[in-house]
Amino acid sequence: MNATEASVKPQKVFVSDCEGPISKNDNAFELARQFIPNGNRLFTLISRYDDVLADIVKREGYKAGDTLKLILPFLKAYGATNETITQHSSRNILLVPGSKEMLQFIRGFMPTFIVSTSYEQYMRALCNTVNFPFANVYCTRLDLDEYKITEKESVKLKQLREEMTKLIVPDIPDGAKSLRDFPTKLHQTLQRLDEIFWETIPSTTIGKVLEDINPMGGFEKAASIKDIATKLKVSLNNIMYVGDSITDVQAFQLVRRAGGLTVSFNGNQFALRAAEIAVLSENAVVTSVLAYIFHKFGKAQFMRLIRGWKPSEIKKLDLYIPLKKRFLELYDEKFPRVELVTPENVEKLMQESIDFRKNVRGEAIGRLG
Fold first, then answer.
1. What is the pLDDT of residues 110-160, one digit of tens each?
2. pTM to 2 decimals?
């Protein structure tokens, strides 16, 4: 999904992931939990397997976020349709406080885009909720009704679901560089998942969904940012990108190498390792402040401000008055954490951000990659 919002060359462009910086949902996880028995555990297993394939194995052609296609045969087996996905998504939008206002405010002075791994049914529902143009969204295209499944395949997938939910959920050991660094007990789990997803399911009719669906994660997010920059005729160093997970790493790397601004908003360990700035906040108004500073003063002054981030500096700053007032009122007692990520503090920040993330989004979603 793509389009441009401005016909003139802008000075700066704002691009954000959705789930995490804008909403508290993990829509695919919630769909699995809704439609599939013990679907929360099944999705967690597949999500951790996704982390291993993307971050450790680096399987050819695989990218972070492909969990969203691996879960689809199971959703289909348990009766999910385009309509039921749309209905469930529409009824369960859970926004980060201040995110609707944040998007409307930033759109007033910068072209603004959302690049999300989420299914388009969820993104359309979210755009309706926050009054954001879907034309400015890049996301995962999905027409689940297009794919057929036989009764025999449904039975088989339900049997596989039962088997898989009994497998050990793989965690990536600290410092692991290859599968040799994993405990032996996890090798059986990973081998069995390889068989299921790359041999068993592809041999079925519904297996075609694994070939066709291309989740908007990893290098696809990076490609989307390039597309935005090309259409708007801006350099990548004019882009501010906000993300929170493993699916944002390559987008972070692209923008950061070009001299743009990369911000982890309540990010996990993957996001913290790749971003320049760590934000820990329950409210998205801080994103409005950061975007305005980047837009008005540029990256160099932005970085100087972050190094001295405190209420007195914000009070002195030449900010849009209603925004400054709202920000200082909201954070009168507890100032939001905004910190430059360095080799010295990255481990500490990772743990603090992960803990904060779980508080904001819930333990189950907060632990996902």
1. 999 999 999 999 999 999 999 999 999 999 999 999 999 999 999 999 999
2. 0.90
Look at residue 3 and tell me if it is in a domain. Answer: no
Return the structure tokens found at 280: 């820990």
Number of H helices, E strands in the chain: 18, 7
Does 272 share its domain with 300?
Answer: yes
| Residues 304 and 183 grouped into a single domain | no
Same-domain pairing of 220 and 308? yes
* Judgement on whether residues 36 and 20 belong to the same structural domain of the protein: no
Strand order in 112-119's β-sheet?
Answer: 137-140, 112-119, 13-16, 239-243, 261-265, 277-280, 337-340
Asked whether residue 193 is assigned to any structural domain, the reply reads yes
Whether 220 and 63 have beta carbons less than 8 Å apart is answered as yes
Query: Domain tally for the chain?
Result: 2
Residues 199 and 267 in one domain: no
Cβ pair 304, 313 in contact under 8 A? no
Name the nearest CA neighbour of 113 among 275, 233, 253, 1. 1
Joined tokens for residue 193: 């998942």
- The answer to whether residue 178 sits within a structural domain is yes
Q: Residue 3 pLDDT > 50, yes or no?
A: no
Helix (H, G, I), strand (E, B) or coil at 173: coil
Q: Which domain holds residue 153?
A: 27-89+143-212
Rounded CA gap, 169 and 127, in Å?
34
99 in the same domain as 121: yes
Query: Which residues make Cβ contacts (< 8 Å) with residue 325, sequence separation at least 6?
Result: none
Nearest-angstrom CA–CA distance, 4 and 14: 12
Residue 185 burial by Cβ neighbours in a 10 Å radius (0-12, 13-18, 19+): exposed
Distance CA 130, CA 94 (A): 11
Position 333 confidence tier, pLDDT thresholds 50, 70, 90: low
Both 172 and 255 in a single domain? no
Q: What is the pLDDT of residues 203-239, one digit of tens each?
A: 999 999 999 999 999 999 999 999 999 999 999 999 9
Distances (CA, A) of 284 to 244, 280, 281: 13, 10, 7
| pLDDT value for 5 | 40
* Whether residue 207 sits in one domain with residue 320: no
